[in-house]
Amino acid sequence: MFSRKRGAAKHVRATDAAPSKALADSLASDGEPVAPEFGPWDSRFAPEGVQRLDLGSLLIPAIEGVEVRVQANPEGGVEQVVLVDGESALQLGVFAAPKSEGIWVEVREEIASAMAADGVTPREVQGRYGVELHARVNTPDGPADVRFVGVDGPRWMVRALYQGAAASDPSREGVLGVVLEGLVVIRDNEPRPVREPLPMRLPKEMAEQQQQQQAEAAGQ
């Protein structure tokens, strides 16, 4: 729901707005990051002994009862990740960002502008990770609540979109909130344009299953 701008990107300096916990910790000691209290985690601080689904740039903690729906292209590149728990869903995205400044403020403004252009009036609400964006949007099935959460980390940003019960009432996010705080971001050392999606891929088992399904479909 946001587009890349042409030309020089407008970033948010650390003095413009309160950075997220992950980014604030990264800036706290002259660029030397400190371990945050909770995630999404930069890979260097990820707790050990946790079973996770490995999607490349994003590791998702495996929690009983949470269904993970992954949409991938024929090459196995992940294009969409949605987690479902009961009446709630959480869509995840992870993007490249500068090392020392966050981009969620700018991204949030663009999402709000896009909504306003569609006649939707979003609200800014203070949440666990800072300012969230809440709105009721029109869908083919009728009006629905959405809630955008952004987390700025060192050279990455996680964008989380809650839908369903967890969007209309944040106190009902339940285990999906646990998933969000347990995410691990693996940012490679490749120089990437700001806001470019970090590469995600299917785990080996899922990729093999997809290839088998494609082969069967081609045979029919």
TrEMBL record:
It comes from the Bacteria. Residues 208-220 have a biased composition (Low complexity). It comes from Actinoplanes couchii. Residues 1-12 have a biased composition (Basic residues). This is DUF3710 domain-containing protein. Pfam families: DUF3710 (PF12502). Residues 1-42, 192-220 are annotated as: Disordered.
